[in-house]
Amino acid sequence: MHRKRPRARTLLALLTGALLAGSSISAVPAAAHPDHPDVAEESFQQVTLAKGADEVGEPMSLAVLPDRQGLHTS
């Protein structure tokens, strides 16, 4: 036989679900700061990490280390 839930528990579950749904709908995305100047392309450096399928393999991740070196795992 099926056991019935107490009314208060069901009401609490519905209320909690409605509050969560309402808060996710009303969330406003963050806006970018307009004060930041555009960064010039000269500030960036393009570095070839590896060439060819034998060297590169299948890239799994690429990260920039705190000392601005690149870390590539395959």
Helix percent reads 25-40%
- Helix-strand pattern: HHEE
Describe the biggest sheet?
Answer: 2 strands, antiparallel
Average pLDDT for all residues? 76
Task: Quote the beta fraction.
Answer: 5-15%
DSSP strand tally = 2
> Helix count, per DSSP?
2
Q: What structural class results from the helix and strand content?
A: alpha+beta
Largest beta sheet: what is the strand line-up?
Answer: 1-2
- Head-to-tail CA distance between termini: 55 Å
Q: Which ranges are low-confidence, i.e. pLDDT below 50, for 5 or more consecutive residues?
A: none
Shape: elongated
Q: Indicate the radius of gyration in whole angstroms.
A: 26 Å
Provide a compact summary of the structure.
The chain has a domain of 27 residues. 31% of the residues lie in helices and 11% in strands. It is built from 2 helices and 2 strands; from the N terminus they run ααββ.
